[in-house]
Amino acid sequence: MKLRHALISAAALTALALGQSRNDEPAGQVLARIPAKARAKCNPLANDPDATAAGRKLFEQHCAECHGETADGSKRGPSLRADALQQATPGEIFWILTNGVVRRGMPAWSKLPEPQRWQIVTWLRSLP
Amino acid sequence: MQAICKSYARLALLIALPCSSLLVGQESPYIVTYDHHLEEPGNLEVEYFSTFGAQRAGNDFHAFWVELEYGATAWWTTEFYLDGQTTFGDSTLFTGFRWENRFRPLRAEHFINPVVYIEYENDSEADKIIKEVEGHDVESDFAVSNATLRKEHDHELECKLILSKDFKGWNFALNPLATKNLSPNNPWEFGYAMGLSRPLALKASAEPCTLCPENFIAGVELYGGLGDTQSFGLHQTSHYLAPAIAWNLPSGWTVRLSPGFGLNDNSHHLLLRWGLSREFSGFTEMLHSWFGGRP
Questions:
Q1: Partners of residue B258 on adjacent β-strands
Q2: pLDDT of amino acid B282
Q3: What is the ipTM of this complex?
Q4: Cα of B28 to nearest chain A Cα, Å
Q5: Of A78, B18, B132, B283, which residue is 20 to 30 A from B42 by alpha carbon distance?
Q6: B231 lies in a domain?
Q7: How far is CA B173 from the centre of its chain?
Q8: How many domains does the structure of chain B reveal?
Q9: Which residues of A are less than 8 Å from B202 in CB distance?
Q10: Residue B26's domain is classified under what CATH number?
Q11: B101 lies in a domain?
Q12: pLDDT at residue B140 above 80?
């Protein structure tokens, strides 16, 4: 009986979580809550000749499953070529990568070392 | 031999096909300690781990477990474990299952990042995976025969507070834990685990590579028991120090190795652990399609 209750609770929690994961928070709102100090951060690898290629490799490994191979977006994640993000500063993109947008389903990527996050920012900023 | 290889190939395909793509992991080397990084939402990680334990006054053992780790949301990871063990010169047993959940209460990174961990365990006393050390767990508990140990069955609740911090490529994690055997008259038992780790290189190379240093993460874990509500402290407890390394391959596999060394006479001299894991994306979409929902 206890096991049945546990399984029902588990199913309810799963359903709740699957519903929650579709919560929307407009990109503008996400950008608005980035602290000014983080927004003003400069990309230390902006002039690194290898950073764009390394950033592309990292993007393919960790981000493309949601944002698409060319960052055009997919069912699971928005396009990163959208105006709001293309106009974002490197510091803002770095902050979003580091903290994620957890309620919208994007995990925090702080498990990647800082230089690797900056390499991804460099590649994203190089998109036409 | 060829037929066996073909069967394994078909099995591998069956496992891999329903999932849309394979991911390159960035897995930490910890086997006992948890950091604050959860599974990416919608992904399923399939993991296998082994622990070889050197046993004084008894037979050595090989305990093993399979973990299915699912990122339900960006703030909730749920895991299901199946445990077993072989005690050399004795027998091989299925010892039970565990259901673990980790919740991240804060939506952004902070100076210290907390994660709440709650686990239900349903296993026999013969369980030897030593995924955590708690209370007065000591080496001599494992010297009893499987036939005797398997008669006792535990229903346990385990709670951990995972505190973790990333700084300049380093990760530091601390996990105080409390467990309660749900049968009456059992005290709360306490323990701890802590870990420190760092990738061998912080910048990624421009080309895909297998042996480049950024694919290796090295670390060390320290874990042990802290007694229980009736006798809190280090008396009659065991403690381990375990260097650990993880190798994240571009093919999506992660290999982990960790020799753990007992720090006092109550501990096993050696707990040699290794593990193999692979992460798949698109598991949520697969569940939706199974149950007729929108992909």
A1: B273
A2: 79
A3: 0.83
A4: 9
A5: B132
A6: yes
A7: 14
A8: 1
A9: 113-116
A10: 2.40.160.40
A11: yes
A12: yes
Considering only CB atoms, which chain B residues are within 8 Å of A63?
none
Confidence label for A13 from pLDDT (cuts 50, 70 and 90): low
Task: Please give the tally of structural domains in chain A.
Answer: 1
- Give CA–CA dist A56/B81, Å, rounded: 35
Q: What is the dihedral of CA B31, B37, B40, B46, to 10 degrees?
A: 0
* A61 is a domain residue: yes
Q: Nearest to residue A59, comparing CAs of A7, A116, A114? A: A116
Question: Is A88 a member of any domain?
Answer: yes
Residue B271 lies in a domain: yes
User: Is the residue at A17 inside a domain?
Assistant: no
Of A54, A111, A112, the CB nearest to B206: A54
C-alpha closest to that of B87 among B120, B128, B117, B45: B128
Position with higher pLDDT, B229 vs A26? B229
Q: What integer is the mean pLDDT of B58-83? A: 96
Domain range for B255: 2-290
User: Which residues in chain A have Cβ-Cβ distances shorter than 8 Å to B204?
Assistant: 54-55, 57-58, 115-116, 119
- The arithmetic mean of pLDDT across residues B203-231, rounded, is 95
b/e per residue B139-175 (b: at least 16 CB within 10 A): beebeeebeebbeeebebebebebbbbbeebebbbbb
What range does the domain containing A91 cover? 25-125
Instruction: Answer whether residue A20 is part of any domain.
Output: no
Element (DSSP H or E) covering residue A86: helix A83-86
**β-strand pairing of B153-167 with B113-124:** antiparallel
In a domain, B161, yes or no: yes
Give the CATH number of the domain where residue A74 resides: 1.10.760.10
Q: Which of B26, B169, B205 sits opposite A54 (nearest CB)?
A: B205
* Chain B interface includes A105 (CB < 8 A): yes
CB-CB contact of B288 with B20 (8 Å): no
pTM of the model: 0.86
* Mean predicted confidence (pLDDT) in A43-64: 94
